[in-house]
Prior knowledge:
It is a single chain. The chain is built from 12 helices and no strands. The chain is an all-alpha fold. It has 2 domains: 1-27; 31-212, no CATH class. α8 packs across α9 (161-169). The longest helix has 29 residues, at 2-30. The N and C termini lie far apart (63 Å).
Amino acid sequence: MNKERERQLKLKKKRKLKKKVNTYHHLYKRKGVYPFLVKNSIKLVIFIALIVIGLLILQDQMPDLEYTFQLFTSKFKPITILAVFFLSETFLGLIPPDFFLVWAKQFSSPYSMIALLAVLSYTGGVVSYFIGVFIGNIPKVHSWMQKRFLEHIDKIKKWGGVLIVFSALFPLPYSPVCMAAGMVRFPFATLLLLGLFRFARIFGYAFILFKVT
C-alpha cells in the first residue's frame, strides 16, 4: 500500500515538473530567449577563439610575451591592479576581465588569485545592483539611466533571472545588467544566487587562457 502511494506521489511530482518545464519552455520561446542564447553562444565561441588566436600570434611574434607582460604589470602593486579590476567590474565593466586572468597566472598560486578575482567580480555586481537601487530613488538620474540602459531594463523585465545568468557567463556587460536589475527592484536574493554563475565564467575562462599562455 505504501509502495503504491509512493509510486503515485513520484508520478505526480514528475507530471508537475514536466508541466513546469513545458510552461517555461513556451514562455522563453515566446519571449525570444532561445534566439538570444544561440546568438550569444556563437559570440562566446568566436570571442574565445579570437583570444586564443591572438595569444598564439603574440607568442609567436614575441617569444617572451609572458616575461614582457610580467615586466609591465610589475610596475603596479597587486592591490592597485585588483582595485582597478573591482572598479571596472562595478562601473560598466569597461575593461575585459580576461586581461586580469592572464595577469593572475604569474603568481605561485594562480588559481588562488583567480578565486579572489571571481569574488571581486561577484561583489562588483552586487555593488552595481545597489547603485541601481540608489539611482532609482533620484528621478532625474533614473530617467536618464533608463534611456541609457533601456535594452537591459526591457530584457530584465521580460526574462528576469535568465538575463543575469547570460551576462554572468557570456561576454556580456555584467555590471550594467546588475545595475538595471537594481533599478527595477529585481529580487536581491535571486540576484545573489544567479550571480554565482560569475565564478564559473571566471574559472572557466582562466582554465582556457592558462592552457594557451
